[in-house]
Amino acid sequence: MKTLLSTFLLTALFLSTSSYAHTSLKTSMPKNNAMLMSSPPQLSVVFTEPVRLAKLTLNSQNGEPVDFNFSPSMESSTFFNYDLPTLSPGNYTAQWMLLGEDGHKMDGSFDFMVHGSKSMQDDKKAHSQHKDH
């Protein structure tokens, strides 16, 4: 009985510490599987715990990389935000790789679709000009 209890306690301890050892993507902008009517002005990722973002790439549906001046973070944070150029209509995949505070490396990805080539900022500007008339 004592061995069974010890095994149970060690297993519970292992499971509880391993669940805290990894962080995950809390949200992104654009969100995973978003269908956007215009190009998003920014690419943002928010994680559940402070991390150092080592890699963030954005590729079009045919694998062409989108340059948005990413550089790896030296400071830990939960929020990272990057300005994007105007994206052409199509499907996009963002891939990330991070280093957790405990040194664990994790990665993941999310996808979104752009239906129009205008930026969201252009849409807001056109709408505000329309309201003035």
TrEMBL record:
The keyword Signal applies. Its main location: other. Residues 22-114 form the CopC domain. Pfam families: CopC. Residues 1-21 form the signal peptide. One of its GO terms (molecular function) is copper ion binding. Keywords: Copper, Metal-binding, Periplasm, Signal. The keyword Magnesium does not apply. SUPFAM superfamilies: E set domains. GO terms for cellular component: cell envelope; periplasmic space; plasma membrane. It is found in: Cell envelope; Periplasm. One of its GO terms (biological process) is response to copper ion. It comes from the Bacteria. Involved in copper resistance. Belongs to the CopC family. This is Copper resistance protein C. It comes from Alteromonas alba. The lineage of its organism: Bacteria, Pseudomonadati, Pseudomonadota, Gammaproteobacteria, Alteromonadales.
